[in-house]
């Protein structure tokens, strides 16, 4: 069983930056497609960004050009660099992982079989 542990959330002013990290624990061998989702109060959980095993990236239109998803080491730790933050980016951010080998549809929540507990991001105006 793989657990995903997020960190890096917090309070930031509009225009500021934060970097979220997601580290797998437990059975960590192998590679995963990984993604970030977020859920604001009273809203559905929505796709933010995805990163395939091969290194291909996917972004929601709302964050394109501001957020960067990347993987920095062999332990599959994943990061979400968030720049030019806006109040509408306020949400709980969830890391997700997928160990399947079929076609990877990054924005589809059902693709992922591992989820983190979430880290809260608040952007003040």
What do you see in this structure?
- It contains no helices and eleven strands.
- With 125 residues, it is mainly β.
- Strands 2, 4, 5, 6, 9, 10 and 11 form a seven-stranded mixed sheet that branches. The protein has a four-stranded antiparallel sheet with strand order 1-3-8-7, with no helix packed on it.
- The model has no long low-confidence stretch (mean pLDDT 93).
In short:
The chain has no helices and 11 strands. The protein is mainly beta and 125 residues long. The strands form 2 sheets. Strands 2, 4, 5, 6, 9, 10 and 11 form a 7-stranded mixed beta sheet that branches. The chain has a 4-stranded antiparallel beta sheet with strand order 1-3-8-7, with no helix packed on it.
SSE layout and pairing:
Blueprint: E1 2-7, E2 10-13, E3 18-26, E4 33-39, E5 46-51, E6 57-59, E7 67-71, E8 78-82, E9 91-98, E10 114-115, E11 119-124
Parallel strand pairs: 2-11
Antiparallel strand pairs: 1-3, 3-8, 4-5, 4-9, 5-6, 7-8, 9-10, 9-11
Radius of gyration: 14 Å
What would you call the shape? globular
Helix content: under 10%
Mean pLDDT equals: 93
Distance between the termini: 40 Å
Number of helices: 0
């Amino acid at each position: 069983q793989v657990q995903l542990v997020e960190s890096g959330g917090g309070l930031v002013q509009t225009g500021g930056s934060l970097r979220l990290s997601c580290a797998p624990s437990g059975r960590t061998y192998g590679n995963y497609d990984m993604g970030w989702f977020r859920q604001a109060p009273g809203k559905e959980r929505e796709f933010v960004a995805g990163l395939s095993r091969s290194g291909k990236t996917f972004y929601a239109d709302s964050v394109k050009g501001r957020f960067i998803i990347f993987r920095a080491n062999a332990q599959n730790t994943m990061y979400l660099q968030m720049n030019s933050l806006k109040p509408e980016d306020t949400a709980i951010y969830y890391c997700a992982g997928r160990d399947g080998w079929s076609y990877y549809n990054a924005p589809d929540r059902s693709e992922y079989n591992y989820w983190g507990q979430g880290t809260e991001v608040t952007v003040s105006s």
